[in-house]
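Can anyone check this?
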Amino acid sequence: MPDEIQRTPIVIGHKNPDTDSICSAICYANLKTRATGILHEPARAGKVNGETQYVLDYFGLEAPKLVEDVRTQVRDIEIRQMDGVNRNISLKKAWNLMQANNAVTLPIVMENGALEGLITVGDITKSYMNIYDSSILSKAHTQYSNILETLEGDLIVGDENTYFNQGKVLVAAANPDLMEFYIEPHDLVILGNRYESQLCAIEMEADCIIVCEGAGASLTIRKLAEQHGCTVIATAYDTYTAARLINQSMPVSYFMTTDKLITFEEDDYIDEIREVMASKRHRDFPILDKNGLYKGMISRRNLLGARGKQVILVDHNERSQAVDGIEDADIREIIDHHRLGTVETISPVFFRNQPLGCTATIVYQMYQEAGIEVEPKIAGLLCSAIVSDTLLFRSPTCTEVDRQSAVKLAQIAGIDIEKYARDMFAAGSNLKGKNDSEIFYQDFKTFTAGKLIIGVAQVSSLNEEELLRLRGRMCDYIKQARADRGMDMMFFMLTNIITQSTELIYEGQGAEQLAFKAFHMENDNISRQEHWICLPGVVSRKKQLVPALVLAAQE
């Protein structure tokens, strides 16, 4: 039994990732890799926004790979590493390979690695049903090297790389006078050590004679065979055995299946291929890579006990915010600073949740606890995440721990935190060239409040005029967004970092009443036509807006 396939754990944040989600994934993957010696790969569940891209560019780092679904794939389970075979190998050799590998299917692969066909035990069995056809050996274009291998023979005259591709196979059991009547040009004749029979076969223009019982051929027979272009093979087998075995020298290409092959790719999901497998009688199926090249074989047995991708979640623990397929994943850890959400696990996991302003602050603490030095680039990412999530320490979610951590990390990264923050926020709030959808969903999260499904998007900016222009656009777009997502309510936060206030746009039946109730506002003081309200002092989605909405919905 081979060792269990090595699975690389994925560290990933929430959908519509923000700077904390991306940076914490990169930094925690780095920490885990250095601490354990096992590669941990950072990933993202969505598009990188402008602010985060500025951070990555500033520190010269690539964005993590995009992972939109963590369901178990073929690449996550054991693939049987069975070598592909050449189309010219004999049926006998194919059978021996099947026996040695306890396999019922062999893949036939071209020189470039592309899958050409399959041959099964059933195909080999069917080949013997055609034994009545004495011409099948030539129809199959059998190479003489296959005949030599199958009969364990010696080549006396001829070229083993040429093919027997005309004529029939016959056994010369009669005397030479009778042989003249049934031997035709291009035939392959199996005979014994009688000189007269050998001579007759050559003179009747046979393409090949097989001399049995180790008799060999005289010098005269050899010369005549060369003159007539007749291949001479000597075997220790008797004529009966040679005749019985010779059809096993036919190439697998003649019997292999090439049409409508059922193949899977490494990226295919297990739950999808399981349905296909269940509908077919085949036991083994070939696996191809993304370029269509053969990789190995898989059977139904391989799917038994298949384990999901190993995943570490950062900056969220809400099922609705998690990457697709999280229910099938093997969640190993959760590192977060939000309220307890709806992610469920089958087995116990390491869960670290602290009431801090940023997940990156927790990750920084874990670096310190592990005694692992924080590299300047890692420090820069962690600092950026803290500055982003706390709005440069202006958010009510910000703690003194966040502030002190950011200052220390800025020193390690060699950045002026105030100037860097202004440039980072400016890059994030630059909405030039973006359509309404891109703006709305660049920082969007879904929450549940009782039976309600609520979507909350947010844009934070230092530019009041930009926010004012955006308000009109989003008041129109939010209706479409709610309809597209099928949510009960939608909210959009236009957050002014300077004034530390938010203009809240809302849409959906009861959304207005819920917002009024959540923030204890009188209907008379608000214009219903505008579909927005001003919330002084509200800048945090996590700590101020969502808790207030959830509490109001439950009352």
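Reply from J.R.: I decoded it. The mean pLDDT is 89.
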